[in-house]
Amino acid sequence: MKGEIQSHHHRTTPKIVLLVTILFALLIIISLYNPFLSQPLLIFSRTTSSSSSSSSDEAVVAVEEDDPAIGSSTAEICDIFTGEWVPNPRAPYYTNKTCWAIHEHQNCMKYGRPDTDFMKWRWKPDGCELPLFNPAQFLELVRGKSMAFVGDSVARNQMQSMICLLSRVEYPIDVSHTSNQQYMRWRYVTYNFTLANFWTPHLVKSAETDPNGPTKTGLFSLHLDEADDRWLSEAEEFDYLIVSAGHWFYRPLVFHEGGKIVGCHFCLLENVPDLTKFYGYRKAFRTAFKAINGLKNYKGITYLRTFAPSHFEGGIWNQGGNCVRTRPFQSNETALADENLELYMIQVEEFRKAEQEARERGLKYRLLDTTQATLMRPDGHPSRYGHWPHEKVTLYNDCVHWCLPGPIDTWSDFLLEMLKTEGRRSREEKLRFSDRKLKA
Known about the structure:
Layout: H1 2-33, E1 83-87, E2 121-125, H2 135-141, E3 146-151, H3 153-166, E4 173-174, E5 185-188, E6 193-199, E7 204-210, E8 219-227, H4 229-232, E9 240-243, E10 253-257, E11 260-265, H5 276-293, E12 301-305, H6 338-359, E13 364-368, H7 371-375, H8 409-420, H9 422-439
Parallel strand pairs: 3-6, 3-9, 8-10, 9-12, 12-13
Antiparallel strand pairs: 1-2, 4-5, 5-6, 7-8, 10-11
């Protein structure tokens, strides 16, 4: 009897081992080929550069895997745009000494900003984690693709932030078609990835018709039914368009439609009705989105990067206003309201309409909703630290743009997370849209 039991044991043991081995192999294969069951290891590589080879390099060039904000992912359903700013003592991940892409007026540390805590925060969504930006992972995801920032100087500010974040892996080369700094292109050779910016502060065709205007800040004519061809003519070349606009609509504007003046915003012209900036803002986004949807060969993803509120206190931008806070707001200390809320709602409403129309063509729109997180960062602006105190320049306190390093580095955290979940979202949308068509 004992011999029979031993014989049976010898016969079954290899089968159990084989079965366990097969199951283990299947689990490994599934985890490798299903991007939603696991995240790749976040490993940063570093290339040498003439602009960042100093031994006194202060930037953190690698992020440890035990950081809870690194390597984790928003696997569960979570609104990554609602949350709080929490301390991140390991930041920043680059400095003004290691990144050459920082515009002088956003180079706060160079020009003597005394505090540094504004660089040491990360965004923590309610109910999940938002991984910090991983440059190597981002560049792998966009390998062979191209991305354009379409908007004003805050859009350029965002692109410069991304270049600095990516500098831990590679610096791009200048492949611009022009010497005009408002239309730059950069290529990451190793990844065949191109970044570009298109200066278009109103998104539509516009021109300054009076350098003084009623407020001494210029008077601009906007053709609200004509998208600015300086970006539209090249939009089809790009896989990703990141569209934004806002602060230039505060200046005096004259609105044209159908070749005729239909109204204005604070133009103070005789017999021209004041339709307010909100009218022009809505029409500008409607025209821009309509133009994108009308492009024959555009197959990319359009992101609306929502309005980034300014933080002037004690006056408006040219009447002594300033931003001197040194800590973020908590969510219960501020709220989107008044003009900021109106501008935000206009953007989102026009975005939703365009998104629905785009779906008929198989085009994708995504909402890069940075407004709430940005509203909570009154401490992140250059203020007076965009030039030397002794310089005789006419520059107002800057509470519109953002210090680099600074809060808008988080916009790349958002964007990378959206890119990582794009495949899943696209499949879900395709299924929902197909279901609606079947029911119709």
